[in-house]
Amino acid sequence: MRYLMMSKDSGDSTPDEKLFADMAAFVEELSAAGVLLATGGLGPDGIRVSSKGDEITVTDGPFAEAKEAVAGFALVEVRSKEEAIELTRRFRKIVGDGESVIQQVFGP
């Protein structure tokens, strides 16, 4: 089962060396286990493409307050929803206060 784990930007703190080291170890562990498929940070701006009938509208962002914007993601392949939740719990313990969203990814 694949899950997309997205982390919202809390905007509350500046990363320090311990955070970078802890995240590097976590990413290395998940990579070595073959669980982590992709990870990355997301820029604060985006492009919204919406459609209504034949009309396509393109709007440049940003669209939400910084604390509501998704700041990063990890795509993982795990055996269960519970395993995805556990990985996200571990991630939140490393990065501290904030919010993450987990969604199952369907398809190949």
TrEMBL record:
Source species, domain of life: Bacteria
InterPro entries: Dimeric_a/b-barrel, YCII
Domain (YCII-related) ranges: 1-90
Family: Belongs to the YciI family.
Protein name: YCII-related domain-containing protein
Originating species: Actinokineospora auranticolor
